Predict the 3D structure of the following.
Amino acid sequence: MLRRLATQRLVQIRHAFNPTSQTSRSFSTALNYHIDTPDNNTELPWEFNPKNQEKVKEILSHYPSNYKQSAVIPLLDLAQQQHGGWLPVSAMNAVAKVIEVAPIRVYEVATFYSMFNRAKVGKYHLLVCGTTPCMIRGSRDIESALLKHLGVKRNEVTKDGLFSVGEMECMGSCVNAPMITVADYSNGSEGYTYDYYEDLTPERVVEIVEAFRRGEKPPRGTQNNKRINSGPEGGNTSLLGEPKPPPCRDLDAC
Ligand code: FES
């Protein structure tokens, strides 16, 4: 019995670490260690550009001056937008300098949150939701359609640098599953957007990719034209009347 359980556990562990497995998980660009490369090393200078330096001041103004480190997440986010969607070590060091902490304190945050990318991503980083409601509604087919159409593996960037495909956990849009987010880094931090595309089919997600390739901005939100936002397909089936006002709205009359 014990041996059988141990064997089952071993199979589960192997399955979890097999990148071709249907149940494999890979978050964001999933690089939680640093190896010096020509475009990612501590010798490369990095600083916020003049426009973003103004934003840095604005972000810091939200926190007491002796708690600058609380601004680490918005500052990393801004650095990532400025750097085309990923965080080289010198950008993290620049953030550490701004908030006056040891660089390791910034590395800890950047490697913990999956929205921070530690390796290059495409100008359009496509994040497929892989959590249960989206998976039941076909997120694996959405991801396969994207990978096949773009000719990449998960977390790889297309040769033209335009697209990459990652995975995220539930993005709170389960009622419109399956869905993806498109992080658009094509216009720096000034034009950065992070939009949801919902109620997808494999065909529709490919159309969306091609629209981005043409430089268009496809309409975000539900892609099912029989729904309004998260409303039921075909219109409401309940709560059809006008809602009653709350009692005692006229406080003088109560
Ligand atoms: S499971 Fe995909 S948005 Fe919640």
Summary: The two ends are 70 Å apart (CA to CA). Confidence is low (pLDDT under 50) at residues 1-23. Helices lie at 2-17, 50-60, 72-82, 89-99, 103-112, 132-136, 139-150, 202-213. Residues 27-118 form a domain with the Arc Repressor Mutant, subunit A fold (CATH 1.10.10.1590).
